[in-house]
Amino acid sequence: MKTLKSMVAGIALLLACITANASVKSHATQPTEKDVVNIYINAIANGKTDNLDKVLGDDLQFNMQRGQRVNTFTKDQLMNYLKSNTVSGESVNTTTTVLSDDDSSSKVKIDFKYDGYTRTDVVTLDKSFGWKITSVNSTFK
User: Fold this and answer.
1) Domain identity same for 40 and 88
2) Which of 104, 99, 92, 102 is nearest to 123 (CA)?
3) 42 plus 15 within the same structural domain
4) Which of 37, 42, 75, 119 satisfies CB 3.0 to 4.6 Å to 112 for a cystine?
5) 59 in the same domain as 2
6) Are residues 76 and 8 in the same domain?
7) Claim to verify: residue 38 and residue 72 sit in the same structural domain
8) Which strands sit side by side in the sheet containing 117-127, from one edge to the other?
9) What pairing do the DSSP bridges indicate for beta strands 131-140 and 56-66?
10) With 60 as the cut, is the pLDDT of residue 22 above it?
11) Do 109 and 125 belong to one domain?
12) What residues make up the domain containing 1?
């Protein structure tokens, strides 16, 4: 009986260790808030869309305002546009400003400064099962 109790306790301890190790690994593979913003910047500024679809929320709303006209895109439409319109090697400087930030959401303003104009994107990120971009409002000056 003593051996049976020891075996059950050992199996319970083993299962607890396996469960704890699995949860640590799954969280470690999730991109951080900063990683998500950098993936977005890399896609817009350099045309590298490799991981962008993984950090965009499925219900993404992308609004692009040009003058009085506002175009709205879904995640799939944005990905198709970015993949078919490659960056022509323009020089771009970026500035990032955190507008608001807490444990579950964040709002970041990103200025892309090209020769002759500036594109400003206000990116909203939410953290439910990892950081995801849920909306982007883009304007040009």
Assistant:
1) yes
2) 99
3) no
4) 119
5) no
6) no
7) yes
8) 69-73, 56-66, 131-140, 117-127, 105-114, 93-101
9) parallel
10) no
11) yes
12) 1-29
Rounded to 5 degrees, φ, ψ at 94 are -120, 145
**Structure tokens, 29:** 């593979």
Asked if pLDDT for residue 32 goes beyond 70, the answer is yes
Q: What is the pLDDT of residues 42-95, one digit of tens each?
A: 888 888 888 898 999 999 999 999 888 998 999 999 898 888 876 666 688 999
In 3D space, the residue among 115, 118, 113, 120 whose CA is nearest the CA of residue 138 turns out to be: 120
Distance CA 10, CA 129 (A): 32
Residue type, 36: V
- Please state the domain count of the chain: 2
**Which regions of 1-141 does DSSP assign to beta strands (E)?**
56-66, 69-73, 93-101, 105-114, 117-127, 131-140
The identity of residue 70, as a single letter, is V
Q: Binning pLDDT at 50, 70 and 90, where does residue 25 land?
A: very low
How many CA atoms, within 13 angstroms, populate the side-chain half-sphere of residue 136?
Answer: 25
User: Nearest Cα to 40, choosing from 92, 116, 110?
Assistant: 110
What confidence score (pLDDT) does residue 131 get?
93
For the chain, helix, strand, coil in percent to 5 are 40, 40, 20
Asked if 23 and 79 sit in the same domain, the reply is no
